[in-house]
Amino acid sequence: MTIRVVLADDQTLVRGGFRVLLETEDGFEVCGEAADGAEAVRLAQEVRPDVVVMDIRMPGTDGLEATRRITGDPNLASVRVLVLTTFDVDEYVYEALRAGASGFLLKDIEPVELLRALRVVAAGEALLAPTVTRRLIAEFVGRPEHRRVDARAVRQITDREREVLALVAGGLSNDEIAEQLVISTATARTHVSRVMTKVGARDRAQLVVLAYESGLVRPGSPGT
Fold first, then answer.
1. From CA 163, how far away is CA 169, in angstroms rounded?
2. Residue 59 · residue 36 · CB < 8 Å
3. pLDDT tens-digit map of 96-111
4. What does the alpha-carbon distance between residue 80 and residue 165 come to, in Å, rounded to a whole number?
5. Average pLDDT score over residue span 81-88
6. Separation between Cα atoms, residue 38 and residue 60, nearest integer Å
7. Over the range 69-101, which residues count as b (16 or more CB within 10 Å of their CB) and which as e?
8. What whole-number distance in Å separates Cα of residue 167 and Cα of residue 189?
9. pLDDT at residue 34, as a whole number
């Protein structure tokens, strides 16, 4: 399967570097470039890529607003957003994860890691390892200016699903959840899917945010 990518960054050199990397690698196609968020949204609607690699800080419509528009559009439900940032602790990145981004990358990422990340996200998974993603969420969810989500979003799931959600927030894969709870991987996958459906999450990244903001998992808890 060819992974179709839109590159959104206001720096021509950054877009060019990513384009050269992807075009020399089998299995990838750059189907558009955007210099601002509005153009990224337009391209997402027009070409329906598998992944939009989205810089956060762009002139005009920034990457955060563009991410909200893409992830909030039912017609773009299959389009994933992978956020680019210069720093690994950035409030804008946290807000992008809340908005539905599937993960984030540092701009100085090694080429092999960028390719791996695109494959992970295009497959419908969230980029939650490295653990810095969970540290990022823990950093900002503890701040008083961040309103917690409606606790009803968590109350509607079963006790077993709460257990699964907490393990997802700890960064465990479906295989690791299955081992921890002594269930099959297929059952673990089903639990995760049901939780996502009940709380309206696009992927595991949003589940992690929900687990922290609902208070189900707290910064510094074992495994986080």
1. 10
2. yes
3. 777 788 888 888 888 8
4. 21
5. 80
6. 8
7. bbbeeeebeebbbbbbbeeeebbbbbbbbbbbb
8. 12
9. 96
Give the span between the Cα atoms of 207 and 184, in whole angstroms: 21
How far lies 46's CA from each of 10, 133, 175, in Å?
Answer: 20, 30, 37
Which one, of 188, 16, 17, 19, lies nearest residue 4 by Cα?
19
pLDDT score of 13 more than 60: yes
- pLDDT computed for residue 133 by the predictor: 56
Distance CA 87, CA 181 (A): 35
Element (H, E) at 113: helix 111-122
**Residue 125 near residue 203 (C-beta atoms within 8 A):** yes
More confident residue, 133 or 129: 133
Partnered with residue 52 across adjacent β-strands are: 6, 81
Question: Is residue 85 a contact partner of residue 52, using CB atoms and an 8 Å limit?
Answer: no
Element (H, E) at 81: strand 80-85
Q: How many CA atoms lie within 13 A of 142 on its CB side?
A: 10
Q: Mean per-residue pLDDT for 166-176?
A: 85
CA distances from 221 to 28, 49, 69, 212, 224 (A): 39, 37, 33, 10, 6
Q: Could you identify the residue written with the tokens 């490295």?
A: 130
Report how far residue 137's alpha carbon sits from residue 93's, in angstroms, rounded to the nearest whole number.
9
Residue 190, CA distances (Å) to 69, 109, 160, 177 in order? 28, 33, 12, 11
